[in-house]
Design a protein that fits this description.
Layout (H helix, E strand, L loop, with lengths): L5 H15 L3 H8 L12 H10 L3 H14 L4 H13 L3 H14 L4 H13 L3 H14 L4 H13 L3 H12 L5 H16 L4 H14 L6 H11 L3 H14 L4 H13 L8 H5 L4 H13 L3 H14 L4 H13 L3 H12 L6 H13 L3 H14 L4 H13 L4 H6 L6 E4 L9 H15 L11 E6 L10 H19 L17 E17 L9 E8 L14 E3 L14 E3 L5 E6 L4 E3 L8 E10 L1
Antiparallel strand pairs: 1-7, 2-3, 3-9, 4-7, 4-9, 5-6, 5-8
Helix pairs in contact: 1-2, 2-3, 3-4, 4-5, 5-6, 5-7, 6-7, 7-8, 7-9, 8-9, 9-10, 10-11, 11-12, 12-13, 13-14, 14-15, 17-18, 17-19, 18-19, 19-20, 20-21, 21-22, 21-23, 22-23
């Protein structure tokens, strides 16, 4: 074998020097003259490393394959080969390369960490956890290994187990940036176990170490809210709004809390203190419309349309406000103007369809719904209104679409593992959920009146009793989906898939005189109601106190038999139905509360 040229050797040394200094361009300049030179094996690993950093994985992978053949004992070349293969999405080959690297040097951390990341990406969480544990047996002081093990456990929903590795990691570093990451992760794990006071302490530590980390203040507000420290939430909202008075999400969240606390003297005042931008005005007008303060909302929409008569969002908002005022013909005319513009969304078509129904023109409503569905075939509001248009025309396609008798299904679930009866399980679950509910009024934006709804995603949040129920719910949901008929022309049935995922899960607590107004779920495919605790009065089949009803819309239409089906709430009962089916509750007249869990699922 011919010895390498001294010039190649010097170039290789200089190229590595540039690369380690972070000067990728200079390293590339050094190797460029040698790319066509024969006998440049000395440069193969360097060129591979340069191509890897350039993201040119298809070139890097064969170079590292060659480097491994030339230097079979070099663990780093096996590791980098795996990294290049992963960049090509050749995960199985990457895993093999990293496993080879670990075998070459069990005390080299990088291939363990890379292997665990890909295993997590592939959903192989137990394998990832085992990989990280092997790393920590070899290198018990490796902070990255503890952090990664905790993440893999948390991703599997094992939040209590995820805490211990983070506590161990704290013992092995003094680096402020790393400490901030650990405390940040601890806050997530503790929050997921409903240990909100401890989570708040971890967030405070994170903020002291990394004050510029995004979203920390919002997460602190979330924890304060869970602890019932509403005045502290408001103080922090005010501080953040002083810092950025144009932040729409802050305004909406701050005013939503004020509304739920009954602070009507402060409600919406933050918008008046902010710069009167188009976005600020639209946001305030939306809340005014939700509160049925149509005259105040109309003043804002007129102001915006004076500025820009072609403002589509302002016109659509104005049209919606006219619907509130009962001026449906005018609203329809405005919606038709908006939908004739390029880029009109299905929301505008459904708005126009609602107006058409209110003036007694189901043919126009049907036309508008079909136009909206050409943009999004699964727009739940257009589907709901299409069914109404058919009902007004006494068209049997309404029944076929909504499936009041076939697609609305009832499941009486078996007791979860560890419980002998649903009665004992639901009693324990109901007492637990009661502690999760905020001590405020209902949200302005939600369908529940006379009750409360839990914050955030209920599933996967570390609630042991909820997770036991979730297993039973998933069994029923899988059966429901598998039992659906095949129909490629039905907007609900055509989405039938082997898997599903939850996009939202929450609990509602309805007090005496409470009810859900008629509504639908615009983001879902399958929606639900699971009954935890139910007052005795719901047993009256004639009064149907607190029963869930299907078919009656939110629009005040003169429909024949508006309620197409009603289902009695029974503890342990799960009701599943298409998300676009209109549903609400018969008002509850009871001295005790009714507690439910609901979720939306979509195909996976």
């Amino acid at each position: 074998m011919t010895a390498p040229s001294p010039d190649i050797g010097r170039s290789a040394a200089l190229g590595w020097q540039h690369l380690q200094a972070g000067n990728l361009a200079a390293a590339d300049d050094v190797v460029r003259p040698w790319l066509t030179h024969e006998g440049n094996d000395l440069l193969v690993p360097l060129i591979g490393a340069i191509r890897l950093q350039q993201g040119r994985f298809a070139e890097a992978a064969p170079l590292f394959e060659r480097a491994r053949a030339l230097h079979p004992g070099q663990v780093r070349f096996a590791f980098l080969h795996g990294t290049a293969l992963a960049g090509l999405q050749q995960q199985e080959q990457a895993i093999a390369a990293w496993q080879a690297a670990i075998k070459l040097d069990p005390n080299f951390a990088d291939p363990y960490l890379a292997l665990g990341r890909v295993q997590r990406k592939l959903g192989q969480l137990p394998d990832a956890q085992n990989t990280y544990r092997k790393l920590l047996r070899a290198l018990p002081n490796n902070v990255d290994g503890y952090i990664a093990l905790s993440s893999a456990l948390a991703e599997a929903g094992q939040f209590a187990s995820a805490e211990a590795p983070l506590r161990r990691a704290l013992q092995h570093t003094q680096d402020a940036k790393v400490l901030a990451a650990i405390h940040n992760n601890l806050a997530i794990v503790l929050s997921s176990q409903s240990r909100h006071a401890e989570a708040l302490e971890s967030l405070d530590r994170t903020q002291s170490l990394a004050p510029d980390l995004p979203s920390l203040d919002q997460r602190r507000i979330d924890r304060l809210h869970q602890l019932g420290r509403y005045d502290d939430c408001l103080d922090l909202y005010r501080k953040l709004l002083d810092r950025d008075p144009t932040d729409l999400q802050l305004h909406q969240a701050y005013n939503s809390l004020l509304y739920r606390l009954g602070r009507k003297d402060e409600y919406l005042a933050s918008y008046d203190r902010a710069p009167q931008t188009r976005e600020i005005l639209l946001s305030k007008a939306r809340l005014l419309s939700l509160e049925k303060r149509a005259a105040d909302a109309e003043e804002i929409y007129n102001r915006l349309l004076t500025r820009d008569p072609l403002d589509t969002a302002a016109m659509a908002g104005w049209a919606g406000n006219l619907m509130t005022l009962g001026r449906h013909q005018e609203a329809l005319a405005i919606f038709e103007t908006v939908i004739n513009r390029r880029g009109a969304s299905p929301d505008f078509f459904s708005g126009g369809a609602g107006a058409a129904l209110m003036i007694g023109d189901p043919d126009k409503a049907e036309q508008l719904c079909h136009a909206g569905l050409r943009i999004d075939p699964f727009d739940q509001t257009c589907l709901a209104l299409l069914g109404l248009a058919w009902r007004m025309k006494e068209d049997e396609r309404d029944e076929g679409l909504n499936g009041y008798g076939s697609l609305v299904r009832v499941f009486d679930l078996k007791p979860p593992e560890g419980f002998s009866s649903m009665e004992s399980f639901n009693a324990e679950l109901g007492a637990y959920l009661d502690k999760l509910h905020p001590r405020t009024d209902a949200y302005l934006e939600q369908s529940l009146l006379g009750g409360t709804q839990t914050e955030g995603m209920l599933f996967g949040a570390g609630h042991a009793l909820v997770e036991k129920l979730r297993a039973r719910i998933e069994e029923a949901l899988a059966y429901y989906i598998a039992d659906l008929p095949t129909n490629d022309h039905h907007p609900f049935l055509v989405r039938r898939a082997k898997g599903f995922r939850f996009i939202g899960a929450w609990s509602c607590l309805m007090r005496g005189q409470g009810r859900h107004v008629n509504h639908l779920h615009p983001e879902g495919w399958i929606s639900s109601a699971y009954y935890v605790t139910v007052p005795e009065v719901t047993k009256d089949a004639e009064a149907k106190n607190g029963w869930i009803k299907f078919g009656e819309p939110s629009l005040d239409l003169a429909l024949k038999d508006p309620i197409r089906r009603a289902v009695q709430p029974v503890p342990g009962r799960l009701v599943l139905f298409p998300s676009y089916v209109w549903h609400g509750t018969v008002p509850l007249q009871a001295s005790s509360a009714r507690t439910t869990i609901a979720f939306d699922a979509v195909p996976r």
